[in-house]
Amino acid sequence: MRKENSTNVLNQQFLFQVCELNSAIAMIGGRWKSQIVYSIYEGNNRFHLLKKELINISEQVLGRQLKELETHAIIVKKEIPGSIPQGIEYILTNKGLELIPILKMLCDWGKTYADGKKINIELPHLCV
């Protein structure tokens, strides 16, 4: 938990006021959020399916990232009626669906300009 008057918090508030891009990046930033959003788009809309798809993410981190995406109204959590135990699925909101082409464009941009190293693991096919 950060102090409300810390330099980091004050700088973040300033940057969010100066440009909405900073706010947008904060909403979808983080190590796993873009992969989670795209994986839900691809149909992996249950916790266990996301965990199976994103093999290196811990359950704690996945839960926290889902909660943050829900807080920003990028996804909604929906109870599956009649399931025992109570099942939950995650659904992209319109706001989340509008992110898909943006994420694909960022992926293409990254292929052209990012200096990341290629590794041989399977992830949702955002960057094909």
What does this protein look like?
With 128 residues, the protein is mainly α. It has 2 domains: 1-30, no CATH class; 31-128, Winged helix-like DNA-binding domain superfamily/Winged helix DNA-binding domain (Arc Repressor Mutant, subunit A), CATH 1.10.10. It contains 6 helices and 2 strands. The chain has helices at residues 7-18, 20-28, 33-41, 47-53, 59-71, 94-113, and strands at 75-80, 87-92. It has a two-stranded antiparallel sheet with strand order 1-2. The longest helix is centred in the last third of the chain and has 20 residues, at 94-113. The protein is globular and about 45 Å long. The N and C termini lie far apart (37 Å). The mean pLDDT is 85.
Count of alpha/pi helices: 6
Q: What structural class is derived from the secondary structure elements?
A: mainly alpha
What is the H level of CATH, i.e. the homologous superfamily of the largest domain? Winged helix-like DNA-binding domain superfamily/Winged helix DNA-binding domain
The helix content, as a percent range, equals: 40-55%
CATH class of the largest domain: Mainly Alpha
Keywords: DNA-binding, Transcription, Transcription regulation
Protein name: Helix-turn-helix transcriptional regulator
Pfam family, one: HxlR
InterPro entries: HTH_HxlR, WH-like_DNA-bd_sf, WH_DNA-bd_sf
